[in-house]
Every structure is written in C-alpha cells, then in structure tokens.
C-alpha cells in the first residue's frame, strides 16, 4: 500500500532537501584551508545575517542543534553561576539540563505546555533573582508548536540596563521560517541548526553573538575546547574554522540561503504563515485540535492532540507504514498525547493538502473523527 503514497517527510528535522541543495552537497571536496573555502564561509555567514537579524559575528560549527546549545552554555556560564531558564517545553528543559551539567544554579521558569512565556513574569523572576547572569529562552518550542514573543521578552530584559543578564536564544526550529530580529530584540547569543527551516542536511549549528556578550565569553570558567567560541572567533578573522568543517553541508547551506534570498525573506515568512494557518484550519475541519493557542501557534510546527482513547505512537507508526507520511510523536510529558507535523523549509500547499488528505483517509478508515477532545 505504501507504493500508492508518495513520501511525505513532515518530521521537525531533518526536513526535505530541494534538488539544488542536493546537487550542491554532492560537489567534490576542497581544502578547508584554501581561499576558496574562506570565500564560501564568508559568503554563507553574510547570507545568514538577515535570517538572524544581526550585523554581528556568526559562527558555523560542525555539530547538531544540541551541540550549538551546549556551545552557548559552555561559553556564557561558569560553575555556580545563577541562570534563568524560561521553558515552554522539552527544548527549554534541555537548556536547563545542559546548564546543570555545567554546574550552574538553575532558576526554572516554566509555562504550561502549549502556552508561551509571559515577559512580565520573566522580568519579575529577574527582580527576585537579580544575580542571574544568563537568561535562556526557546524561540519556537518544537515539542508544543508554540512561538514565544521574543520582542516582548527581549524588551523586558533590555529595560534592565547595561548590567542585565545575557539573553541566549534557541532558534533552531524558527530561523529561516519565522522572522527573527536579534539586534533589535537585544539577544546576545542565538543558535540555529542546518536541518530545519534552512533546508540543509543535519551537521551544522550556526551561532550569532552580540558585541556585548564577548567579555562574559572571555571570562567564563567552564571547560571548553571544541566548542570554544574564543578560538572560533580567532579563526573567523581569516574566514576559517578551528577544526575540519562539514564542507558538504556548507555547500548545501549556501545554496539553500540563495534559494531563500531568491524567494525573498519576507515571502518565505509569509509562505510559512500561510501554510501553518491552512494546516490548522484543515485539522480543525477534520475534528483534530492543535495543542497551542491560536494566538501564539507556530508557523513551522503543529502539535495535534491524539483523539481520545487512541494511541499516539500507533497513529505515528500507521501514518508512516501505511501512508508513507512521517510525522513526529509527542515528547516528554506529551508522549502519546500529541503528534507533530512540521511545515518548515521546503514545503508548499501540495504538501499540506497531502497531509490533510492522509489524515482524512486514516481517520475515516479508523472512524476516529468522533470525540476528539484533549
Ligand atoms: C531540533 C531542535 C533542537 C535540537 O537539535 P538536534 O540537531 O537534534 O540536536 C534544539 N532546539 C530546538 C528548538 C529544536 O527544534
């Protein structure tokens, strides 16, 4: 039966690759110490700047998104530092776990799953803990499909003046799909990864760093070597990387960024928004409920409640085996309770229609359309 259904890869990364990215990836190797490579890295970084919304430094690390998160922690946190982790789901919790592993004293500020962080509550928590040196926030929570209002959170932190903590943002599932304005919002370190809205295979984490962050990075006392941004900065002066980079992934990323520029960044954002709305409307017509409130529903990922009395893992498995539609399962406390449909990167109306058609087929066959309540 699988033959009848075209592959539809709708997991939140790795996402499908455009043909031209696949071609770029298959090019012959070059020396990573050659002028040719330096040009490639410099160009890729300058093409990344509008996605981050920064004029500042950008580093490309060969690692996954979590490696990028760890690099942000290792370079800003010293043992026994107090840090605030604002969590709206699994990826916020991951920041807390990494900060703990580096010996930080973590103040956890958690919001209910499907909700977003309230900027005033963030500010009040900092009032209660004025010695926090870093605030960690997830821009787009991939486990729930909710997008934080980073403009508001950033403004609330910027109001605290020059002694404010660094603001470190995980933008792994948003950058390239949802607008980001690092400089305007006062973010200090922002990380993303290649395999989500950037339409590139896994392997690269991209980190932007504000000028303001450097003294704390220089002074941090956490052990670091591979992820040492001080070393990355010295090499970046010559458009190079300290260690062997994933050259193929960089070829792909550079091409993907050209595609984004050709379509136009604003057009890319509008497409993501249009498709997200189309998906959520279609889901509701099928009687399926998105987890996140509409007011802050994500433009790149939608978590959907599993219909009552049904097994979330079985639905994910059947979608893959019978319909060749690959979606994400629930994570953490949402395991078995939701499944997640990614709509980031190389995605269009037809993809969304296909997802909705398959869900209709599945739920018609299994007669699940009754009683879909959380
Ligand atoms: C995917 C993701 C990560 C982790 O990325 P890996 O490449 O799997 O390590 C981190 N944060 C968010 C928000 C993500 O969506």
Would you give an account of this structure?
With 374 residues, this protein is of the alpha/beta class. It is 41% helix and 16% strand. The protein has helices at 19-25, 35-52, 65-76, 90-101, 119-128, 150-158, 182-185, 214-219, 229-236, 247-263, 265-285, 312-323, 349-365; strands at residues 8-10, 57-62, 82-87, 105-110, 134-138, 140-141, 146-147, 166-170, 189-193, 204-209, 301-305, 325-329, 338-342. The strands form three sheets. It has a seven-stranded mixed beta sheet, with helices on both faces. A four-stranded mixed beta sheet has the order 1-12-13-11, with helices on both faces. It is globular and about 60 Å long. The site of pyridoxal-5'-phosphate has 13 residues, from helix 3.
Q: Topology as H/E string?
A: EHHEHEHEHEEEHEHEEHHHHEHEEH
Helical content stands at 40-55%
* Biggest sheet descriptor: 7 strands, mixed
N-C termini distance: 31 Å
How many DSSP helices? 13
What low-confidence regions span 5 or more consecutive residues with pLDDT below 50? none
Strand content: 15-25%
Brief account:
This protein is α/β, with parallel strands linked by helices.
Helices and strands in order, then pairings?
Elements: E1 8-10, H1 19-25, H2 35-52, E2 57-62, H3 65-76, E3 82-87, H4 90-101, E4 105-110, H5 119-128, E5 134-138, E6 140-141, E7 146-147, H6 150-158, E8 166-170, H7 182-185, E9 189-193, E10 204-209, H8 214-219, H9 229-236, H10 247-263, H11 265-285, E11 301-305, H12 312-323, E12 325-329, E13 338-342, H13 349-365
Parallel strand pairs: 1-12, 3-4, 3-5, 5-8, 8-9
Antiparallel strand pairs: 2-10, 6-7, 9-10, 11-13, 12-13
Helix pairs in contact: 1-10, 2-10, 3-4, 5-6, 10-11, 11-13
Bound molecules: pyridoxal-5'-phosphate (PLP).
